[in-house]
Every structure is written in structure tokens, then in C-alpha cells.
Amino acid sequence: MLAFKPAQGTLLTVLLIICMEASQCTILQVDPPEEIKIIDPGHLGRMEITWTLPASLIHIQECPTLYQLEYFNAYMQRWDVIKTPHRTYSAQFDLMKDIQVRVYTLLGEHCANNTWVKSQNYTELVQKPPREGPRAVNNFDCVFYNMERLNCMWRNYHKLPSNAQIYLYYWHKELEQIEECPEYLFMNGVRSGCSLTGKPLPDFTDVNFCVNGSSPEGPLRPTYKSLQIQNNVKPDPAEKLTLQQDHDTQIKLHWKKPSGNVPEHCLIWEVEHTSKESQKEHSEQIYTTHTSLILPAVAERNCFRVRSKLCKYCVARSFWSEWSQQRCI
After folding, report:
1. CA 318 to CA 310: how far, in whole Å?
2. Do the Cβ atoms of 309 and 240 come closer than 8 Å?
């Protein structure tokens, strides 16, 4: 058995190679990658991560190499793990939080006894966001009304100078470069939102937003957000809620889904039933995927209203619609 040690002065352990025969060697240790870089192409949080081959592997061509990339997903509050043969990867980051990236090296197959050897250490990069100036805005969110009208709104930060000007930019993978809001919305004469109605945005795709500002009094910190528009849908209210009582024992409810682009099979309905008997009032909620319901007539007076949202089988989240008009019988 022969053991090869790194030359004196070589960084770290480099490679620990055990050879049983002259033609059969097994790598037991390997160095992590070098020189991690974060490259910002100007896509409002979609960043390119690159790294270089460990110096100890430059002259070892016959060994298959993988890299284990781990980066902190601030939107999901978790570490995402990717294995790739490449030395570059594109990932989404919240530019208001620390960017944390670490990479391991893996060598495999015939160079590691038909398995994969992972570097004991990793190379890490932590990049902190700028902290200069007050935040331009807060409480930024977007609502895709009935899958037809997309509005993004924000509140101006309370320390924002009165002469500051606010701008919204957005980007997704179908755009070559960022674009500015086509139509700003105003509240009390101040920009407080943006209408993107008429600007088709792809669903099930990250859309990145940045609300930035300028002020003669100094720099403002931007607000970033990444979302998928199908998760921000708010349906219109239900239409034509009707009640019909059958022989004083049952009440038949029927309503129509709002016209528009929201798929009917994706809607879940909440029916609020308020009953009143001898000056006592009681309310209950009933959930259904249908647009009709038969309930017992339990009181002298029965009132109903309905609202809807998209169910978890179609989207990750949704906003409840406004309530329909209440009907009583």
C-alpha cells in the first residue's frame, strides 16, 4: 500500500490517494472549490453563482466531478441543495437579506471505489445587503384580481422625505432586461402602486419586483419581492345568489361563479349561514366545491352569503374574494 502526501507548502490536504496497485488508486479526500463569485446581471434577485475547480484537481482529468451547492432561500427560510457537474448556477435571492452560498466538491466512480467522495470542508461566500438610507417603501404586495387585473401596492416609509420619487421595476425570464411600471397609481398625490393590467406576466414563473426611490437628501434602500402571479389571485364576488325554501324544511342555495378567467374547478367556496331564532343569532361556515347547497331550515330567519378563493390543488395560496350580497329567507 502506497500513500501519497501533498508537497510541503501545498494548501490544505489537497488529495489523499491510496493505491493498492500501480494502476488502481482510490481518492479518500478532496479539496472544496475555490473562488466563489456572485454575479448580478440586473434581474432584481436572479443571481449567477460561479466557482472554480480546486487547484489539486486541475491535472486530474479522468475522475468525474460533481459539486454540491447549498444556498439559503430567504423566501422559503430554508437551505436549498443542488448537485451539478457545472461550475455555474442561477438562483433566486432576496436582495434585502444576506446572500449565503457554500459549495463542496465530489469525486466519484472509479476514482473513489465506485462511490462519491465529498470534500470535508466547503467554500463559503456571504454577501450582505447595503444598509444606507431609509427604506423607500414597505408592505409591498400584488393582487391579481380575477386573473385579469394585476395591481401592486405599497406604503411609503414614514421616514421617507416628502420630495422623494418612487419607481417600480420588474423582470421575469421572458424579458431581456428590467422594465418600469407602465401606469403608476396615486394616493393623496403620492405614488402608492402600479397597475400592470395589459402587461401579460407568465404564471408559475418567478416575477421579480423592485421598488426604489430617489431623494435629494440621500440614498434610499430598495424593496425587493419575488412572486408567482397565480399565487396572488383574488376572485371577483359570486354572482346571483338565490334562495328557495322547500316545504319549510329545506333551503336550496344556488349561485354562479364570477365571469372571467378563474377556472371553476379551482374554486373553493365558503358559505356563511346566519340563523336567528327568538332574538338569538348563530353563525356557521360551510365549505364546498359546488355552486349549490341544500341545508335544513333551522330557524325563523336564515341568511346566507358566499365567497371564494383558489384551492390548494391549483395554487400555493390565494386571497378570499369579497362577500356576495347577503340573502335572507
Report:
1. 6
2. no
115-119 long-range CB contacts below 8 Å, 24 or more apart?
116/66, 117/27, 117/28, 117/29, 117/30, 118/30, 118/68, 119/29, 119/30, 119/31, 119/32, 119/54
Which residues neighbour 7 within 8 Å (Cβ) at sequence distance 6 or greater? Answer: none
Residue 226's DSSP bridge partners are 208
The CA distances from residue 43 to 25, 26, 89, 226, in Å, are 46, 43, 15, 11
| Contact (CB, 8 A) for 270 and 285 | yes
**pLDDT at site 28:** 61
Euclidean distance between CA atoms 297 and 318, whole angstroms: 32
Q: Is 146 left (phi over 0), alpha (psi -120 to 50) or beta?
A: left
Distance of alpha carbon 37 from alpha carbon 111, whole angstroms: 28
Tell me the pLDDT tens digit for each residue of 123-168.
999 999 987 777 888 899 999 999 999 999 998 876 677 778 899 9
Q: Per-residue pLDDT tens for 21-79?
A: 444 555 567 899 999 999 999 999 999 999 999 888 887 777 788 999 999 999 889 99
Instruction: Give this prediction's pTM.
Output: 0.80
What is the rounded distance in angstroms from the CA atom of residue 172 to the CA atom of residue 166? 21
Alpha-carbon gap, residue 137 to 165, rounded angstroms: 11
What was the pLDDT predicted at 52? Answer: 93
**Bridge partners of residue 80, in order along the sequence:** 71
